[in-house]
Amino acid sequence: MTNIFTYGSLMYAQVWQSIVSQTYRSTPARLAGFARYSIKNRSYPAIIPSQNAQTQGLVYYHVSDADIALLDKFEGQCYLRLSHPVELNDQTYIQADCYILRPEFEHLLSLNAWSVKKFEQDGLQTFLTHYNGFNKLKS
């Protein structure tokens, strides 16, 4: 069982639950050393290493290997899953796997920081509509 740190569309229950097969406890968390940017012409973000940056997100606890396989498939070839310490709101740290944009795909990033508020207002529904095939991952 592995903790998973999410920072984009997977922070939203509608997206998360459409991919995984179980319900997991979650809590807000921060990942130091990574910056979150929008992907060009997409509503979702990616993170890349950035020394003085910090990314807010959500950590899901004790995710099963089967569900991690589904998440790996959902994230696809552009992302690499790596373990990093994340800080919880009580200022303790835990290890969590994070999906980080592979360096060879950094050309896909825009120069704009990804906006949670904009995604909630404009992008979430579009994302859910456009990526309606989540349940196919479970097949």
From TrEMBL:
Sequence ranges assigned to domain Gamma-glutamylcyclotransferase AIG2-like in this UniProt record: 4-107
Keyword field: Transferase
Top-level taxon of origin: Bacteria
Lyase listed as a keyword: no
Pfam families per the UniProt record, alphabetical: GGACT (PF06094)
Protein name according to UniProt: Putative gamma-glutamylcyclotransferase
Organism: Catenovulum adriaticum
